[in-house]
Amino acid sequence: MLIGIILAFRSGLFSAPIPQVTPAALDDVRRIGIVQAEDGIEDSYDDDVEITNTFVIDVGSTSNKEAIDKTADLLSGRGWEILGKSPTGAAMKSAKWAASLSVDSFDPASLRYHPKILKALQGKSVRAEAFAIVRVNVYQGG
Question: What is the pTM of this model?
Fold first, then answer.
């Protein structure tokens, strides 16, 4: 019986669970501002599947650069480590949550694979300069 189960796992009969960021880590991100919209999508590549959670968050900024700086600072204050930062974005990771994320200024074109987010933003008074896009997924680096 045990040999049959092992062979079933090896042959792909039972698939491994898809790595996901813990709900507590996602709540940690939500707490930095007012979430305008969010969505999660599965990406497949090279026989791997990854779930990316995307948030549009209002952190009360007045410009795109300020949105990135303020978002990165707020996340840094929650224990997220900045891996790299530029005027157009930031990359961060959290050892606590075993997750990584990217911060980008708001651009509807970069949300084309998130019709749920675009629909949620329709009809809202969108102050694009105040929003940041935060994408969170399971940390794969060393």
Answer: 0.82
